[in-house]
Amino acid sequence: MWSAAAASNGLVLSEVDATALASTLPLGPAEIADAVARLARQPREAGEPIARLLRHVAVDQEKDALPPSVRSVATRFSWDDLVLAEKAKTELRSIAAHFTWSASVLDRWGFVDRLTYGRGVSALFSGASGTGKTMAAQVLARELGVELLLVDLSRTVSKYLGETEKNIDTAFRVAERRGALLLFDEADALFGKRSDVKDAHDRHANVEVAYLLQRMEAFEGIAILTTNLKQNIDDAFLRRLRFIVDFPLPDAAAREVIWRQAFPDRAPLADDIDFGFLGRRLQLTGGTIQQIALHAAFAAVDGGAIEMRHVLAATQRELDKLGMFDAGRALEGRAARVGAA
């Protein structure tokens, strides 16, 4: 239907793209025809990917108000923004390939008959806070041209019987209808290990976990879980995950790259900023480095340029906030020299 509708409107849609649209957007004939016709009427720049534009138009048709437990997240980051070991990047590209080629491998080649836990692509991103897990989910969503939906766990988990399961089902249904990537941030709060039943609360929690297992198996899109504590995720979920991607703390070379990327091209930087020193001396995550860069920029905005003293002062402030007092004291000598200069 996608191929026929595109051809009748003078659009060229490859078999791979038509298959991906068909397998990830549960639309009927009228909705498909309407989406293609609407795109055909819109002005387009030469070279724009037709499949991605069709997905956006089709999803816009389904964009009713999101439930309180789900919110849409902007996808601004690309592969170049993601400073990760090549092994982790390879795993992320494999996730994208599993989504893109799902129909070809599972249906045409018959691998759907060999699946034990469902045809959806599920992944766990594990690592310390600030190592790029949520950014990686944004990169994947942008690469695939799909919407990124974040499950708000504070509005999903409920003390009332059956409400958590209802909220979980709503999140999956919305993601299915919109062909979106579904992200569970800090997932151990929802996907935690089941406990021995000692009271009604334990029984209720275990029922929620069991329902979540069933719902994930039925989901045909991409579901990503992020956690700082992989050991707290229930083993039953780990067995069902197709990918587990570890996000290690960045080494000195990676930290230097992150420091350089933390400042936009338009930001006025003084010549005295020593990115090599910052990368070698401070064992920080990308999230913390970005916070420091932002504070340094606000401190420097009335002076016209971001200098090393601004960066060091912002770093000291962030280290104190994190309780990293030894690392902060190690900066004092460098800060004193910069101040004297």
Automatic annotation (TrEMBL):
Official protein name in the record: ATP-binding protein
SMART domains membership: AAA
One Pfam family per UniProt: AAA
GO molecular function: ATP binding
Keyword terms, alphabetized: ATP-binding, Nucleotide-binding
Similarity comment text for this entry: Belongs to the AAA ATPase family.
CDD domains linked to this entry: RecA-like_protease (cd19481)
Organism the protein comes from: Nocardioides cavernae
Cross-referenced Gene3D superfamilies: P-loop containing nucleotide triphosphate hydrolases
Residues of the signal peptide: none
Sequence intervals crossing the membrane: none
Positions of the AAA+ ATPase domain: 119-251
